[in-house]
Amino acid sequence: MLRAGIVGLPNVGKSTLFNAVTRTRGAEAANYPFCTIDPNVGIVTVPDPRLRELQRIAKTNVIIPAVIEFVDIAGLVKGASQGEGLGNQFLTHIREVDAIIQVVRCFEDPDVHHVAGSVDPVRDIEVINTELILADLEQVSKRRERLAKDIKRGDKSAAAEEAVLGKIETALNAGKPAITVDLTPAERALAAPLFLLSNKPTIFACNVKESEIATADANPYVKQVRDYVGTHLSCEAVVISAQIESDLVDLSPEEAQAFLEALGVKESGIGSLIRSTYHLLGLRTYFTAGEKEVRAWTIHAGDTAPKAAGVIHSDFERGFIKAETVAYDDLVRCGSIAAAREQGLYRIEGKDYVVADGDVLLFKFNV
């Protein structure tokens, strides 16, 4: 299962957000730096309204959503790459995740301490990114030193890796994350074993006050974050209110909806954040639907039908014969598999078929 790590400076709302997104109170949330020591891990369901429509069509009582893993990582501070705060221990925790959710404080509150003494979201982003870049620079430099010996012996693979790391080191020295370097897929594969911190796909979560969630687009701090990450990092920024999400944990779905409407918003920001993170990880969903259950299955973008079948069971991939499929939108419009088949929208696909997000599939196999 792929993992998304929640990072940021101390006291920006990481643990509160983690508790909300996992619907638990397992992570301590307190008004002092480093209240999170060991990373908290939680399994998060991916909100998907398509499941309810498929449940209605399949006439089943059982829905099983897709899931991803979220990790709450302790706050980083300036100098972490040199051991400041809780230092390299937590850079290691970041290295172990597949994507990063960077929580950025976008609210004023004198009762909530800010480690830098003032609210400045762009400065905070640059502090975090600088520490990731400095840690990467050290790692790349050491690797290039080791490669130099192999290159002298005429090792062509070492020379190819050295060329890629040279490009990355140039960017890092200019203060640019590794993920911004223009590399071919083959070049990225050469750098992949280093698990560079600044090479991880990142989404920014702008944490605003409860009273500002309905007008977040006008929040000057949110505007700063969106402008900065869009211009410098080509990343997405979403708006959440960790405190609101924490308050929703103990409410029923009906109570939660009424609470959100009273605040002037239609949907919890958590749903949008989870879905954005799911796609940030390169994940897509296909469905199986029958009287027993409707289930969302997670695949990677670009996976073929046999690979998708293997997510259910390795025998399905090994003995794959064909996939019977209909697009979600077509199925909902037709109202049933039978109607979709009558209209020529229910298809038979082979081993080379690339599964699309939202496909409803039935696999035929023989082992």
Task: Provide an overview of this structure.
It is a single chain. The chain is α/β, with parallel strands linked by helices. 41% of the residues lie in helices and 19% in strands. It is built from 14 helices and twelve strands. The chain has helices spanning 14-21, 50-58, 88-95, 121-152, 156-173, 185-191, 220-233, 242-248, 253-263, 269-280, 305-312, 314-318, 328-334, 337-342; strands at 3-7, 40-45, 63-64, 67-72, 99-105, 202-207, 236-240, 283-289, 294-300, 320-327, 347-349, 359-365. The strands form three sheets. The chain has a six-stranded mixed β-sheet with strand order 2-4-1-5-6-7, with helices on both faces. The protein has a three-stranded mixed β-sheet with strand order 3-9-8, with helices on both faces. A three-stranded antiparallel β-sheet has the order 11-10-12. A hairpin with a 4-residue loop joins strand 8 (283-289) and strand 9. Helix 4 runs antiparallel to helix 5.
Topology:
Elements: E1 3-7, H1 14-21, E2 40-45, H2 50-58, E3 63-64, E4 67-72, H3 88-95, E5 99-105, H4 121-152, H5 156-173, H6 185-191, E6 202-207, H7 220-233, E7 236-240, H8 242-248, H9 253-263, H10 269-280, E8 283-289, E9 294-300, H11 305-312, H12 314-318, E10 320-327, H13 328-334, H14 337-342, E11 347-349, E12 359-365
